[in-house]
Structures are given as structure tokens and as C-alpha cells.
Amino acid sequence: MLSAKDFFDLKDWAHGRLFNEDEPVWHAFTRLKSYMSQALKPNSQEVGSLRPVFQQTTVLYRGNILTSGFELRPGDVTKGKFQVIHAGEALEGATVFYAGACLMDDDIFVGPGSVVEPGALIKGPTIIGSHCEIRQGAYLRGHCLVGNRCVLGHTTEMKHSAMLDDAKAGHFAYIGDSILGNRTNLGAGTKLANLKITGTPVGIRINNEIYDTGLRKLGAIIGDDSETGCNSVTNPGTLLGRRCLVLPTLSVGSGYYPDESVIR
Q: What is the domain count for the chain?
């Protein structure tokens, strides 16, 4: 049976306890909510008086809130090149909420060095790691577990899903009931469909055998270092191994694709 170790290197991911290596990898979805209720240590309360929609750009640094007297020097957030300068010094690990960003409730953690741009909307429970870039118009609908150095881009929607470290969905993506492995990249317009139109639970074909997941909603599980081309769609119950490539505009049938598959 395919477990998490067949898709991901978990030694550096802070939330490896989401998975049980003795179970099929999709069982993680049955425990995502309970795991997050235990792991979430919100910091959105620290800026509670300024929410839900920030009226001015706000910096959270070591428990202190700054709304003026700082300079922002934009750069690649995931590479630590976005700088907040205050009193002539760079505030390493400062978290930035631009004016117009929206944190809907108290069950949200945004890690050090991360940036939430104007128009991004985040609902809890959500955990966002360090040095992540949540771009303008991104929509996180809750039960979102985001690792370090991740990108959720313009008009990208995420719900009940996980992103391991360095995963990126930069443009116009839908991530529903899905898991993106380390260093995965979704090309612009990628949609990870999670609901069968027949109204039946999602089954997965593995080595010519159909496994009933028992899940009404299951998107894609994408292994480390895999990529999808622009405007591709994965059907419910798609499992991509490590280092897979999906060419642009394809509709990928459900089932398991082994490591280094090229789906044309």
C-alpha cells in the first residue's frame, strides 16, 4: 500500500505527524482537522484590533506590532530577501500584513518572515510557515496547513489541504483536499479537482486494483519535486509520485502514476 514515505521526504517538515507510515497516504485527510486543532498556536490575536481587514500595513515582530516608522524593501520572500527596516536595522523574521489583507478569525498562525499581500483572505484554522508569500487575491478557506517558503498566488484557492516545504501554486490554482510535496510547482491555472460528479466516494486505481478511499472529496497527492503544466486538471483521486511531470492543458485521469512519470 502506498504510504506517505512513497511520496514525501518528511524529515524536515514540521508537521510530519500528520501522516502514519503504516497507513495509505490518503488517510491523512481523515486526521487533518484533529491534527490542526492540536498543532495550531494562533498569533492572529496579536493583531486582533486591526482585523479582519487591515486598514494600514502592519508588521508583527517578536510580539510587537508596528504600523509606522518602518520601511519595506520588497524582494523574494521565499529566499529571505524581503526586508523590513526599522530604526536603521533589518528586522529578521518580521511578518508583514499589507493594508487590505484579511484575517477572518483568531485561528490563524502566520510564521516569521511571511508576507500577506493586499486582498488575500485567510480563514482559520490555518497554519502558515516561515517565509511564505500569500499573494494578492489568494483565498485560504480553512484547514490549510502550509509549510515553509511556500507560495499561494494570485486568485489561488486552497481548502482542507497541505503544502510541504517550498511548494508553490503561484497563479490561478485550485487546491482542494490535496497534498503538495516538497518543491512541487503548479503551473498557472492548475486545478486539483476533488469531487466526483457521480456523487460516489473516490476510488484509486493502483496496479490494476481499485482501492476505495471512503472519501467523498479527494483531490491530488503530488510527490516531491513534481510539476504540472499550465491549465492542467487532475481528476479526483490522482496520485503522482516523485519527480513527475504533467504537460500543459491535460486532464489527468485518476489513479497512481509512479515516480518520474511524464503524463502527456
A: 1
- Bridge partners, residue 256, by sequence: 239
pLDDT in the model for residue 39: 97
**DSSP-derived secondary structure letter, 195:** B
Q: Do 36 and 251 meet the contact criterion of CB atoms below 8 Å apart?
A: no
Q: Cell 510530519, residue?
A: 16
Residue span of the structural domain in which 94 resides: 41-172
Condensed to tens digits (0 to 9), the pLDDT of residues 74-96 reads 999 999 999 999 999 999 999 99
CATH code where residue 102 lies: 2.160.10
C-alpha gyration radius of the chain? 18
- DSSP-derived 3-state class of residue 216: coil
Is 30 domain-assigned? no
Residues 104, 44: Cα–Cα separation, whole Å:
9
Model-wide pTM > 0.85: yes
17-38 mean pLDDT: 96
Q: Is 196 helix (H, G, I), strand (E, B) or coil?
A: coil
Asked if residue 252 is part of any domain, the answer here is: no
In a domain, 2, yes or no: no
Residue 217 lies in a domain: no
Distance CA 162, CA 177 (A): 8
Nearest to 194 by CA among 155, 222, 236: 236
Q: What is the pLDDT of residues 131-173, one digit of tens each?
A: 999 999 999 999 999 999 999 999 999 999 999 999 999 999 9
Positions annotated as catalytic residues are 171
With CA atoms as reference, report the closest residue to 73 among 55, 53, 54, 96: 96
**29, pLDDT greater than 90:** yes
Look at residues 240, 144, 121, 129 and name the one whose alpha carbon lies nearest to residue 192: 240
